[in-house]
Amino acid sequence: MKAALLEVRHLHTHFFTKSGTVKAVDDVSFSVKPGETLGIVGESGSGKSMTAMSILGLIPSPPGKIVSGEILFKGEDLLKKSEKEMRQIRGKEISMVFQDPMTSLNPVFTIEKQMVETIRAHEKVSKKQAFERSLDLLHLVGIPDVKKRIKMYPHEFSGGMRQRVMIAMALSCNPSLLIADEPTTALDVTIQAQILELFKKMQDELNMAIIMITHDLGVVAEVCDEVLVMYAGKAVEMTYTKQLFDNGKHPYTLGLMQSIPKITPNKEKLEVIEGLPPDLRRLPKGCHFAPRCKYVMERCLIEGPDMTKVSEHHTVRCLLYEKTKKAVKQ
Amino acid sequence: MLKYILRRLAMLIPVLIGVSIITFSLIHLIPGDPARSMLGEKASEAQLELLREELGLNDSYLVQYGRFISNILRGDLGTSIQSKESIAYELAQKLPATIELSLFAMILAIVVGVLAGVISAVKQYSWFDHLSMTGALFGVSLPIFWLGLMMIWLFSVQFNILPPSGRMTTGVHLETITNFYLIDSLLTGNWEAFKDVLQHILLPGIALATIPMAIIARMTRSSMLEVMRQDYIRTAYAKGLKRFIIIFQHALKNAFLPVLTVIGLQFGTLLGGAVLTETIFSWPGVGRYVYLAVLGRDYPIVQSTILIIAAIFVFINLLTDILYKYFDPRIKYN
Fold this sequence. Notes:
The complex is a heterodimer. Chain A is of the alpha/beta class. Chain A has helices spanning 48-56, 83-89, 101-104, 111-122, 127-140, 146-149, 159-171, 189-206, 217-223, 241-247, 251-258, 322-329, and strands spanning 6-17, 20-32, 37-41, 64-73, 76-77, 94-97, 177-181, 209-214, 226-231, 234-240, 308-311, 314-316. Chain A is globular and about 65 Å long. In chain A, 34% of the residues lie in helices and 23% in strands. Chain B folds into 2 domains: 16-73, no CATH class; 88-327, MetI-like fold (Orthogonal Bundle). Chain A binds chain B through residues 56, 58, 87-92, 95-96, 98, 100, 103-110, 117-118, 121-122, 153, 155, 166, 169, and chain B through 230-232, 234-242, 245, 250, 253-254, 327-330. Chain B: Its main location: membrane. Chain B: This is Peptide ABC transporter permease. Chain B: Keywords: Cell membrane, Membrane, Transmembrane, Transmembrane helix, Transport.
């Protein structure tokens, strides 16, 4: 078995606001191996993006703070690194592609300037060399007419093209881990498919690991090897993608699966998970999903469950499966 | 771009015609007889008639206006009633003094204002932020003549380290080339004069810089706070860029547009002659020139100077508009 490239252990990231402590990331653990793709799925506010920002050390502080946990990257704890050391990792070892390509590029600089500065921030190369590499990268991600395009400003590109530029920029120093935070959410469906295809192609060519943050199970099915499901800051289920779709365990995961619209003529109403995610400042006692859960038991309102192993490489945070845990232990 | 500039320059023509009509009318808007109001109660009828003839006040308005314009186009701004000197010649002496003082004040205001604004935004709610924003509030609220007088009292009277008035100590020799004393002294390598001129410009420069500096600082701060929240700043951090570069390149260039607008307007106002400051510090510039002309009812001076100031003002505005394009490439000129 390959050693993990990134291993996150019991990460807790909290925001200390005037109206209370927000546990944005509340006990999240997972690992990613080189060349693999991990999907992190969940609703808005479930802590997906904050998990990613924690890895890069970009939690706005104050009010945010990583309270406890470990983030091991190539065996070293990123939380123990200085700001300077982190700066050398960001954009080089771990790079990130953001949700909205329309606003993620600086509007007042040319693509050339933005690409060249990224390369030159990490490598001692001449402007010309950095420029040449930028041309290659843009070509690689499928930008036509690169020599002319590189001199242009972001507003002269379409959304899909801008996301390609973002990806090219993220790839510019051959990162071993790419974090993509909802990279296709803001794009048209046809463009989404192209961008996902591009991620796969790049991964094959560069053998990097990808963390794909999304709320779209379609994207997960398309590109991910493993999936982490998050709810209200907590990891609630983690397993292989196929296992999750065939044999998902957590009631929240099941709810998500059912709420995917299906093309069947007699289906009248869309299945939904009743209720809303809880206010992270006033989390319910016990299981955070209990108020919305179809299978809720009395115990659920009192006890918060731990991650339980239900089978090889499949963990769930739900009291329904606690028995199995005991069985496994025995 | 060039086309845009040419078109904007062409658009200046109607503006300047409008201004010229207004300044021309000035002399005729004086209640009663303009000649009498210029010469005073004691002037004889013969003197009045002579002045009327001299100023051409006996012709029809249209003829007078035509003459006014054609004179200006030939560079003839008329003659001062009191000194009998050519106004064009006098302005050529006064204008560099005003421009030099305005530039000095503006550069001071921009450097200090932008820096204070940026630091306040980056360190929001820190002691520096509170201090500089309180300072800025005082800056915009203080009456400038009071500030000027207090500075003279403090630095010239109490400590006696800076001169209270003028551009240069009489007796200091300076060969003038451009009439910008700081530049002239540098060009001729005359360090003694440079030091003297710098000492003279310091107090009026600071007094004049106070209000623009305060406005620029506040504008920079609010604009930077807005920009620092943007996605592309997060991207810049994620790329592993240095904080200094993110703040002063990525953020500041985006935040600069509203600041530039303020700078343009303030600079235009300063160039119009800071009447109060120039008067308090006896700065031999346009502001003081106009002030004295108004007191002496020297209307030809008032007319010509207003026209020149208006032209400078619209020109600065044009310059600001062109600079916009540098800071924001999304701006299209058509």
